[in-house]
Every structure is written in structure tokens, then in C-alpha cells.
Specification:
The complex is a heterodimer. Helix content of chain A is about 65%, strand content about 0%. By secondary structure, chain A is mostly helical. Chain A has a two-stranded antiparallel ribbon with strand order 1-2. In chain A, a hairpin with a 2-residue loop joins β3 and β4. Helix content of chain B is about 5%, strand content about 55%. In chain B, the strands form five sheets. In chain B, strands 2, 5, 6, 9, 10 and 11 form a six-stranded mixed β-sheet that branches. In chain B, strands 14, 16, 17, 19, 20 and 21 form a six-stranded mixed β-sheet that branches. A four-stranded antiparallel β-sheet of chain B has the order 12-13-15-18, with no helix packed on it. In chain B, a hairpin with a 7-residue loop joins β10 and β11. The chains are: A mainly alpha, B mainly beta. At the A-B interface, α5, α10, α11 and α12 of A face β17 and β18 of B.
Chain lengths: ~950, ~300
């Protein structure tokens, strides 16, 4: 294509038609268009079937295959590899009814660990007793004794200096030996192993590990019990009445259905167990196989458990005894659904002997082991908790009261109180709160750590009301204040603060907060996390933020948090609470706003070079929300606030952006209020607003954001008739254009700048239509400036994009040439009125258009040279459409140009044929509107695909 | 696989009373057909008395000076001479359990010096050259509870103090203690547990263990005099470690089968039982209280 000059000539000079303005009927809608469709169907099902509880649509689909819950379910089996054995899922085993035990079990294993060395001693004590049987040897027994000898050789060595892991491994290996022996029909050997295991429970040499040891060993014993039971069950096939085929026993069999041979085997087991010499192994092993009693009798089971309970009295060591009781109760519950009576009996016995825990012999034992009494008592907690739980979960309130009374009568009752507090229902605790508080205070100075009790009670009372709350509050606070260790003190405060908040006035709470500050203000050794939690709890328990800040101790409390990050975290949470609590409301209270600004400032100041982007983003969002919530109603005060805020939150771009928007908003509000008839005062105010934005925007880092803000500010300035400000903003925006980076980060992703630039330019162009020219600057100087700047942007966006933007500028110019513009700003005279379609102005536009056209054609050529043929075709086709649409084809050369553009766009077959066809069709439809020999008709007739 | 004989009695627990007929089957398993000269089943009850070397001297003990006494002896011919086909052959049998002559049937008892045992012996005679097959099986004889006198509970209280101790002692060196308790009955039914309670009222030295010791007292009398021997059957711990004071601890023991029988007093021998309550102190000193007991079947 040659470098010919084309005269640009607008065709719609005279015959401009007002484009129809489509006013869409607005309808209010209740549903969000982007909301998932299936939600509605979900709602229907819920209404049909009202019993159905809410189904979380997110999790509903995954319910069957949630890998985490599957894993959690699996966990019970996985955490002990012992369970990888044949009795994995016993048909009628022990596991069915002791789910609460499983939880307890895991908790114990996690809590009671030791670094001390453990030892396993496996002497064969009971050989003495069975010596007479050797004499009375018969042939069958001999074999069995031989088996035993093998086992003794295996384990007679003393295992000492084991680490905890080795110990666990050893006990597990006992389990494996037991199962292997059992599977090889060495039942007596299996029994021996079980006895050996149970015997380990006699040893309390490492007290801290005892609960875990108990768990490990009872696992083995349970396994043994199941093996015995399963085997008897397999043996006990019977003839159902009227049938001649042997079949296994039904689920709920009665002893008279059991054949004699199975009964005999079962009896043999019990005779064997009854002759175990040592008390503790006998108790445990008998308890473990207790379930098998169901083959012999139904009625004696409970008698049997009661007998075992009584026999437990013979155990001298209180720790061993309490865990034995725990095991008995567990077995009782799982085997024959023993009611709370069994636990009650055991607990009563335990309480009878409670003084034993503090006896000199225990003291002696502890001093040799170098364990303090508090942690010794701690080892009782799981067993006691479990038994207390059994009582607390039953409906027997008389037992509960009895137990409570018994516990209260004891001295050193800290341990008992702890179990009461942690297991009884919160309602019960709330009801007895007064007594409990008195009892707790009587524990002051005793061995069981007081703070544990206070903390536990506070946690349990959370959300419950008590009758005499003032008294309780006072007493508790007295006790808490007495605590010496700051960590203990804080954890108690943490537990009680919800209660205190719920039951005290703001001023009282203020005093409490003051106490906390006095107490810990000076020290540095405490957990900031707890303090942070306290602060957050206080904040979240206040329905009204204004009230919160009337307490003059609240903000100082925040200051007490030494750790930067904790403090920032607390501030963040408070702001979140504030933002969430009053989504619709806004506040104007100066105290609140000051306090919140202070909090926000803490948050803002915690941002440093090391802060993660995401953190900054979160803080920015929060502070922005806060700023938007503060509304004084008075615009000038509001602006002052924004100015201050800008000074305070300099480092967070998000906040700066929000501030600009806020100021723009009040500028618009002002303009709306005066209905664009600005008085001197309002005019000054909107100028000030524009000035605020104008000087604030440069501190934003992101160029594209700056561009947008400038444009918005310019539009608003225009709306407020601040023409100078609008011009300045646009000029500043234009100055940014050449500095734009190649790509920007939007929502964490790197994007090409080009689409954002085009968007901005288009937006700017539509604004430029109505921006009136400044007389000092010459016609359309801003538009010209834009074109100049765009020329410098070629490097950034590439030639094709710039060419397209040129097309947009041409488009804008076509509108600017109209005698009347499609839209105006009220009270602002745009160029159509200023120039009144002055020929000079039109010539200017035409010359600009010609220059642009030339530029475009040059670019098209460059594109061709760069072999970017697709772009070339697309742009030339677009230009062709423009020309056909907006140019007066009659003017010289234009028709030729159009035709050449058509040819160019088809030259390399890169154009979408369908689109071209459609355009051609529409052009042909228009033919009748033009005379036959017009340039248009001639052109259209020439066009071919 | 060679030929084997097995005796299977019908009752799973193998317990029979006097006058019962013992029923069961003789199971012969053979890979090939065998010829035999007859199968007989012998039921025999024997009382074996052994003299303790302590009492009668090694020489007499070695020669087992007391001959076993046959209480009962019944021979039944299961089958006359004939053939047993290959495979498994069950032959039912029935033998009455009756005493021989004027003898009385005693309960089965496996002791040290007194041994009462009942056996079934099956003999398969195989001509002159081939070796016969033989199988023995023990069965258990108990008195019929309905024929026995009921145990009349006889409660015994006891108190153990340094003063109550027998034997040589020096009260100055013995720690102060008081242990009290009771035995529910010293006349016990053999199938019921031995029960009672014990309480440590006070003690100067911590206790290490409390045990129940069951001992048998066997007396063999003969022309030359008699020998009495006391041996332990079993020991059961009922208290472990320093048990709490002033709290009743249950005494509970199940009598082991075979090793105990109802107290037996005959002209030739006696089988009696005693229980010792043994309290071991931490310094390994021990005190014990002895309770002769009478065992009955009902």
C-alpha cells in the first residue's frame, strides 16, 4: 500500500442521529446470579424432608470418601501395629462398647511419656506353686510343660535400661508372641505371656510412664481375652432345637445352649487362672477373660466383677490399684453393660484409701524417683477421670451427689476436685459452683496444683450461669490473684475471663483488666499467646465496641503484650470482630474511633520488610474496612480524619487506595447534596478533596492502580466542576503511561499489562469526550497528549495493541466531531458547546484523524514486515469497518482506501471467513439506502471474499 | 500311619460317680485290615501309697513297701477274636463303676504320697508273634453330692499378734502388729471357693505380701507305724505390697481339681488339708496362722 495522504472526512457531520437510549427495566432479584444452581434444589429437599439436618453442600459429595475422616477412623487401628493380627475385628469382642476408652487411651499414650530408662523383669515366681504338679505329671501335662520351658528360656533374661520406644516395642512383641503361640495351639504359653505382661503392671519404678504402660499392657490382655473368647465360641457349636446340624451359637446365647465340652474347656481356663500365684496378674488375667464366663453362667458375672473389685483392696500401691479398678470397670462395662454401680463401688473403695496417696511410703517412693507429688497425682488423672466420667454420664444423680459428698470430705482433695470438674456435666458444676469454689480455696497450698483446678472450673463454666455469680467471681478472683507463677495466673485468667465478662459490669471488668496489667506489666516471662487470647476474648464478648473502649485499661492491656506478632495478631482479631459485628452500621464515637485507629496503627506498624505479601493484604483489607466503617456524618471532619489516617497508614497501599476512594466518595456526596450548584464553601471543599486525592495517589506503588485512581479522581473532579483538577489528574495519568512495566501482578498472578492498559485508555477516551478544552492549551490537547504518550508505549505493549488503541482514539474523535455529544456532565460545558462545531475545530479533528490513520497504515505495514499477518488482517479488517461506518466515502480516496483495506485483510487468508461474509451480507442489506452510483454502492459491489 | 487305639468316654469332663456305667467308644484307626485275638477293656481303681523317705528311710521308700490297693477291677470283653477293617472303627462299650468286694470307692486324688487313680485300659491282643496294642485313659471319680453330708459352715475368727505366735520367739525383736480376720467356714464344699476376710489393724513394718497357702496332710499308716507328711499344693497371693490398714481384704481361693479331694480318713491312710494365712513383712519375716479344714463334696 502506498504512502498516500487521505483526507479524513466525517460522514455524519449533518445527519447525526441520536442513538436510541435503551432503558432497561430493572427488576429486584433475590438470588445471586452466580450462586450455584444446585443450592436451590438442595433447599427443596430440605423443605420436603424437614427432619433432615443441614447438609453442607461442600462436604456432602465427599462424605463417602473424605480421606481425613477415613484416616481418623483408621487411626485407631494403625497406631498400634499390634492389631495386625487375626482377631482384628472380633465378632463380639471387647471393642464394641468402650469407645470413650479409645479416646482416653490415645490421650494417655500421648501425655504420659518418659525419658527415663525402664526395665522389664521376667522372673518366674509362680514356679514354686506349681512344683507339686510336676510330681503329679501325666503324659499330657508333660508336653505342655516342655513348651513352657522354651518360653522361659526366651524371656528369663532381665531387660533393663530400655528407652520408652524400646519398651513399647517389647510389650508389642509380647503381644505378637502371644498371638503366634495361640495360633500354634500353645495355649498355655499364650497364658504365660499374658501373665508376664500383667506382671509388668506391678512395677511402678517409673511413675510418669505408668499410665501408658497400663494402656499398652491392657491392649495385650484384651487381645488375649478376645482370643480365649473367640476360641470358645468356635468350639461351642450346638444343635439348635429341632435341627441336626451343628451351628455356631447365636448372638445372645444362654449358657444352657453351650455344649458340655466347651463349658469344660472354659472351666479349665478359669481353674488355671485361679491358680496364678500373684495377685495382680491373677486379677488382670481373670478380668481379661471375664467375658468367657458367659459360657458358664449369666448370673454370676456381676458377682464375679464385684469379687474382683474387693480383691483389688489387696493391692498395696494406690496407683496400681486405681488402674486395676479402671480396668475392671472397663471390662465390666464392655462385657455385661455394668451400670454405674460397679464404678461407684470401685470409687468408694478408692476414696476409702485415698489417704494412702499421701502416706510416707509414697513420699519415700517419690523421693527416690525424684518425682514431685503434683506430677505423681497427675498420673492418677486418666484413670480417675475415666471412672468419674462413667458416673457422670449415667443418669444416677444420687450416685453423683454421693460421690460429690464423699470427695468433699477428703483432705488433699485437689485430685478429686480435678476429676469432678473435668468430668461432671457443666450444669452440675454450675449448680454446685459455690461449694466448689469454697473447696478449691481450701486446697490452697496443697500438693495438687491449684491453678489446674481454677482453670478447669473456668473452662467448664464457660457459657453457663450460676446462682451466686458475684460471690463466685469475687472468690475466684481472690484465688487467682494469689497464684504466684505468672503463667498459671494468666492461664486461669484466660479460663475465667468469659465468666467474668458475663457477670460483671464494664467498670468491674476494667478493674480486673487493671489487675492483670499490674500483675504482669513488669514481667516478661509469660506466654504472649495467652494474653492475646484474653484480649481477644474480652473483645469478642463485648456486643458493643463503644463500650469496650470506655474501659481505660483495655488498650494498655494490649500494650502489655510484648511480642510484636502476638500484639499484631490480637489487633487483627479485634478489628475483625469489629468489622464482622456491625456490617451495616458505622461509628462516629470519637473514643472508639481513636481506639480503633490506635489498634489499626499497631497492626500497621507491625508490617515491616519481612512481612509476607498476604499478611500485608489482610491488614490492608482490615484497616480499609475499618476506615469505611467510621463515619462522622460531617464531611469536613471526615476529611480531616482521612488526612490523619493517610499519615498513619502510609505503608499500606490498600489503605491508601481506600482513602482515595473514600475521599472521592465524600466529594461525590457533596456534589449530590448541592445538586451540582456549588457554593463557595462546597466548591472549596470538593477542591480540597480533589487535592487530597491528587497528592495521595503518587504514593501508591502499583502503576495501574495509580492510573485508575487518577482517572476516577478526574471524573469526580469533573463532576464537581473542578476542571483544573480534572485536567491535572489526567495529565498526571498520562505521564505515567510510558513508565508502565511490561507486566503487573494481579491477585498474585503475573499478567500482561496490555489488557489493563487498553481498558484504561478506553475509559479515559470516553471521559475525554466530555472534558472541555482549556483555552491556554489549545484544542484537544489532552487527546493529543494521549496519542503522544501512546506512541511511547509501543515498547511496552507491542505494535498491534497500540494500533488498536489508535483505532479507539479515531473512534473517540468521531464522537468529538459531532455537533452534540451523547452525554454531558451537569453544569460542565463540553467541547460541543464550547466550539459549537466550529470548522476550525473540525479541521483540527480531521487532521488528527489523518495523522492517526497514517500512523495506523504505517503500523499495518510494519506488522506485515514482521510477518504478524493475523494481527495485520484483523486490524485492517477492523479499520475497514470503521471506514465504512464512520467515514464519508464520497470524499476523495476514502473508497479506494476502504477497498484496499478489504483486500489487505483478505490477502493472507488469515481472517475468519464467516465474519467477513456476515459483514458483507449486512452491507448488502444497506445497499437500497444509497443511490446506485454512490461510492458505497460501487465499493460494496467490488467487495469479494 | 500305624494302627492306633483311643478310648473316648462320653462325658466331656470324664467325671463319674459310683454306680454309674461308664460309656464311650473305642476308636481304632488302622491303615490296613488287622486280625486280632480279642479286645478287652479293663477298668481299674488303685490307691497307691508311697512312704516318704523322711519317715521310713530310703531303703523302704525305694522298695515301695506299701502295695497298691485295688479298689475296683472290671474286665469287659469288647470283641472276640476277629478282624478289624481298614479305616476307623468305633466300638461302643459300657463298664459299671462298682467297688471290688468290700472295698469302697474313693474320689480321684493326685497327691504326693497318696495317689488315687482310676483308669480304663484297652488291650488288643494280636496272636503269638505280633505285638498287641494297648491304650490307657484316666477318668475321674467323684462322690455323688446327693450322697454326701453337707458342709456345715463353721466360722472361725482369728487375731494374729506377736503374743499369739507359737514357737521360739523374742518379743523384743518382733515388730508390733495386729492382724485380725475371719474364715467364713473351715468346713468347705470342694466346689465352692474358700472365703474369708483379713484386716491389718496396725503394723510397725510395712507388709510385703499376704498369701494363702493350701497344704495337704497325707498320713500313711501301716503295721510299722504311720508317716505324716505336709506338702504345699498351691499358694495364692491376696495382698500385694503395703496394703492399707483397717480395711477388710477378701480371702478367696478356689480348690484346684485333682490335687484336692474331700477329706479322706481310712484305716490305712488319711488325706487332710490345711490352709495357712501367711503375712510377709518387708524385711522378709513372716507370720502365719494355720487353719485345718475339712473338705466335703457337698
Amino acid at each position: 500500500m502506498g504512502t498516500r495522504n487521505f483526507e479524513w472526512n466525517w460522514k455524519c457531520k449533518s445527519t447525526f442521529e441520536q442513538p436510541p437510549i435503551h432503558v432497561y427495566k430493572l427488576e429486584q432479584t433475590l438470588s445471586h446470579p452466580l450462586k450455584q444452581i444446585n443450592t436451590t434444589s438442595k433447599l427443596e429437599t430440605v423443605s420436603h424432608n424437614e427432619k433432615l439436618s443441614f447438609i453442607d453442600p461442600l462436604s456432602a459429595n465427599f462424605e463417602n470418601a473424605d480421606p481425613l475422616s477415613l484416616m481418623a477412623a483408621q487411626e485407631d487401628w494403625d497406631d498400634l501395629d499390634l492389631n495386625v493380627e487375626p482377631v482384628k475385628a472380633p465378632k463380639r469382642g471387647l471393642e464394641m462398647s468402650d469407645n470413650p476408652w479409645i479416646e482416653q487411651r490415645t490421650a494417655i499414650l500421648n501425655k504420659f511419656t518418659t525419658t527415663q530408662k525402664l526395665s522389664i523383669s521376667l522372673q518366674q515366681h509362680q514356679e514354686r506353686g506349681s512344683s507339686s504338679r510336676d510330681i503329679a505329671s501325666n503324659i499330657g501335662l508333660k508336653n505342655k510343660l516342655e513348651q513352657l520351658d522354651d518360653f522361659e528360656e526366651l524371656t528369663l533374661r532381665q531387660l533393663e535400661q530400655l528407652s520408652q520406644a524400646e519398651y513399647v516395642e517389647t510389650v508389642n512383641s509380647f503381644g505378637k508372641v502371644l498371638v503366634t503361640a495361640w495360633n500354634h495351639d500353645f495355649r498355655v504359653k499364650a497364658l504365660k505371656v499374658a501373665i508376664q505382661c500383667a506382671k509388668l503392671l506391678v512395677d511402678t519404678s517409673v511413675v510418669q510412664f505408668y499410665p501408658s504402660k497400663f494402656v499398652l499392657i491392657t491392649d495385650v490382655l484384651d487381645m488375649f481375652g478376645n482370643l480365649v473368647y473367640e476360641r470358645l465360641l468356635a468350639k461351642a457349636e450346638y444343635y439348635p432345637s429341632g435341627s441336626k446340624i451343628m451351628s455356631p451359637l447365636p448372638e445372645n446365647f444362654t449358657p444352657d445352649m453351650v455344649p458340655e465340652s466347651a463349658k469344660e474347656t472354659c472351666r479349665n481356663w478359669f481353674y488355671k487362672i485361679a491358680s496364678i500365684r500373684e495377685l495382680i496378674p491373677r486379677l488382670y488375667v481373670e478380668a481379661a477373660v471375664l467375658k468367657s464366663y458367659t459360657f458358664l453362667t449369666n448370673s454370676e458375672l456381676s458377682d464375679c466383677v464385684n469379687r474382683l473389685t474387693l480383691m483389688t483392696r489387696g493391692i498395696g500401691d494406690p496407683l496400681v490399684a486405681v488402674y486395676t479398678r479402671c480396668y475392671l470397670c472397663r471390662i465390666g462395662q464392655s462385657v455385661f453393660k455394668a451400670g454405674p454401680e460397679l464404678i461407684r463401688q470401685n470409687l468408694k473403695d478408692f476414696l476409702l484409701l485415698y489417704e494412702q496417696l499421701f502416706s510416707p511410703s509414697v513420699h519415700h517412693q517419690l523421693s527416690t524417683q525424684k518425682v514431685d507429688l503434683a506430677s505423681y497425682l497427675g498420673t492418677y488423672v486418666p484413670a480417675l477421670d475415666w471412672m468419674f466420667q462413667g458416673i457422670a454420664n449415667s443418669d444416677r444423680h444420687d450416685f453423683l451427689d454421693e460421690l460429690f459428698k464423699l470427695c468433699m470430705e477428703k483432705r488433699n482433695k485437689g485430685l478429686l476436685l480435678n476429676s469432678i470438674l473435668s468430668t461432671f456435666k457443666p450444669e452440675y458444676i454450675a449448680q454446685k459452683a459455690e461449694v466448689l469454689v469454697q473447696q478449691i480455696s481450701s486446697c490452697f497450698g496443697e500438693s495438687f496444683p491449684l491453678y489446674t483446678l481454677l482453670k478447669m472450673m473456668g473452662e467448664r463454666l464457660r457459657g453457663h450461669t450460676t446462682s451466686n455469680s458475684n460471690y463466685i467471681k469475687r472468690e475466684i478472683w481472690k484465688l487467682v490473684s494469689k497464684l504466684e507463677n505468672e503463667g498459671d495466673y494468666l492461664s486461669c485468667v484466660q479460663a475465667w475471663i468469659p465468666f467474668i465478662i458475663a457477670h460483671s459490669s464494664t467498670s468491674e471488668l476494667n478493674i480486673v483488666l487493671g489487675d492483670i496489667i499490674d500483675r504482669i506489666g513488669s514481667s516478661t516471662k509469660f506466654s504472649c499467646a495467652i494474653l492475646q487470647d484474653i484480649v481477644i476474648t474480652v473483645a469478642s464478648n463485648f456486643p458493643d465496641m463503644d463500650q469496650l473502649f470506655t474501659m481505660d485499661k483495655f488498650l494498655p492491656l494490649l500494650d502489655v503484650i510484648r511480642s510484636e506478632s502476638s500484639r499484631a495478631m490480637a489487633c487483627q482479631r479485634i478489628l475483625e470482630i469489629f468489622c464482622k459485628s456491625r456490617t451495616a452500621e458505622s461509628t462516629a464515637d470519637p473514643v472508639t474511633t481513636d481506639a480503633l485507629t490506635f489498634i489499626a496503627k499497631v497492626l500497621h506498624d507491625s508490617v515491616n520488610a519481612l512481612s509476607v505479601d498476604d499478611e500485608k493484604r489482610q491488614y490492608g483489607q482490615l484497616i480499609s474496612q475499618l476506615i469505611m466503617k467510621i463515619d462522622f456524618g460531617d464531611f469536613e471532619q471526615q476529611l480531616r480524619f482521612y488526612v490523619e489516617a493517610r499519615a498513619t497508614f502510609m505503608n499500606l497501599d490498600a489503605v491508601i487506595v481506600t482513602l482515595v476512594h473514600c475521599v472521592n466518595r465524600i466529594a461525590v456526596e457533596t456534589g449530590k447534596k448541592v445538586k451540582s450548584h456549588h457554593t463557595k464553601r462546597t466548591a472549596a471543599f470538593v477542591h480540597a478533596c480533589a487535592a487530597f486525592s491528587y497528592i495521595t495517589i503518587p504514593s501508591v506503588t502499583s502503576e495501574i492502580t495509580r492510573l485508575r485512581l487518577y482517572l476516577v479522581t478526574a471524573q469526580i473532579a469533573l463532576f464537581n466542576q473542578s476542571l483544573g483538577q480534572a485536567d491535572a489528574c489526567i495529565a498526571s495519568a498520562l505521564a505515567i503511561l510510558p513508565q508502565l512495566p511490561l507486566s503487573v501482578e494481579i491477585d498474585g498472578k503475573m499478567c500482561q499489562i496490555q489488557p489493563y492498559l487498553s481498558e484504561f485508555v478506553k475509559n479515559l477516551l470516553s471521559t475525554l469526550i466530555i472534558v472541555p478544552d482549556c483555552f491556554e492549551q489549545g484544542m484537544l490537547y489532552l487527546t493529543r497528549g494521549l496519542v503522544n504518550m501512546l506512541q511511547q508505549c509501543v515498547e511496552i505493549t507491542g505494535i498491534a495493541a497500540i494500533t488498536r488503541l489508535y483505532l479507539d482514539v479515531i473512534r473517540m474523535l468521531s464522537v468529538a466531531a459531532r455537533p452534540e455529544y451523547p452525554y454531558h456532565v451537569r453544569k460542565v460545558d463540553s467541547n460541543d458547546i464550547l466550539y459549537g462545531s466550529d470548522p476550525k475545530f473540525l479541521t483540527e479533528i480531521n487532521s488528527m484523524s489523518s495523522i492517526l490513520l497514517e500512523e495506523i497504515l504505517n503500523n499495518l505495514q510494519t506488522l506485515g514486515e514482521q510477518k504478524d499477518l493475523e494481527e495485520q488482517a484483523a486490524i485492517s479488517f477492523e479499520l475497514f469497518q470503521y471506514v465504512i461506518e464512520i467515514v464519508n466515502l464520497e470524499s476523495e480516496g476514502m473508497a479506494t482506501l476502504a477497498y484496499q483495506l478489504w483486500l489487505l485483510s483478505h490477502k493472507h487468508k488469515c481472517l475468519d471467513k464467516k465474519m467477513a461474509m456476515r459483514l458483507l451480507d449486512s452491507l448488502k442489506l444497506k445497499l437500497p439506502m444509497y443511490p446506485a452510483n454512490s461510492a458505497f454502492s460501487l465499493l460494496v459491489s467490488k467487495l469479494k471474499i | 500311619m500305624s494302627t492306633s487305639i483311643d478310648i473316648r468316654v462320653k462325658k466331656a469332663n470324664k467325671i463319674y460317680h459310683e454306680g454309674d456305667s461308664i460309656t464311650g467308644t473305642i476308636v481304632i484307626q488302622t491303615p490296613g485290615e488287622i486280625k486280632h485275638e480279642g479286645i478287652t477293656l479293663t477298668m481299674e481303681g488303685l490307691v497307691e501309697l508311697q512312704l516318704s523317705p523322711r519317715n521310713v528311710g530310703i531303703f523302704e521308700a525305694f522298695y515301695n513297701s506299701v502295695k497298691p490297693v485295688q479298689i475296683c477291677h472290671v474286665v469287659v470283653e469288647i470283641s472276640g477274636p476277629g478282624k478289624i477293617p481298614s479305616g476307623k472303627t468305633d466300638i461302643p462299650f459300657e463298664v459299671p463303676l462298682l467297688p471290688r468286694g468290700n472295698k469302697t470307692i474313693y474320689e480321684t486324688y493326685h497327691g504326693v504320697f497318696v495317689y488315687i487313680q482310676y483308669t480304663l485300659k484297652c488291650d488288643l491282643k494280636r496272636g503269638f508273634l505280633a505285638k498287641g496294642l494297648m491304650k490307657m485313659a484316666e477318668f475321674i471319680v467323684e462322690y455323688k453330692p446327693s450322697n454326701c453330708t453337707k458342709a456345715v459352715p463353721k466360722k472361725v475368727d482369728f487375731v494374729i499378734t506377736p503374743e499369739s505366735l507359737e514357737g521360739p520367739r523374742d518379743l523384743g525383736t518382733i515388730p508390733r502388729f495386729k492382724i485380725s480376720g475371719f474364715i467364713d467356714s473351715v468346713v468347705c464344699c470342694i466346689t465352692k471357693p474358700f472365703t474369708g476376710q483379713i484386716k491389718i489393724e496396725h503394723t510397725e513394718i510395712p507388709i510385703k505380701s499376704i498369701e494363702l497357702q493350701l497344704v495337704r496332710v497325707e498320713t500313711c499308716g501301716c503295721a510299722e507305724g504311720y508317716a505324716k507328711d505336709v506338702t504345699e499344693i498351691q499358694s495364692i497371693q491376696i495382698g500385694e505390697g503395703n496394703v492399707a490398714t483397717n480395711l477388710y481384704i477378701p480371702i478367696y481361693m478356689i480348690f484346684p481339681r485333682l490335687f484336692t479331694c474331700p477329706t479322706l480318713i481310712t484305716t490305712n491312710f488319711k488325706v487332710e488339708f490345711e490352709i495357712n494365712v501367711v503375712v510377709v513383712f518387708e524385711n522378709d519375716h513372716l507370720v502365719s496362722e494355720n487353719f485345718p479344714i475339712v473338705l466335703t463334696r457337698a
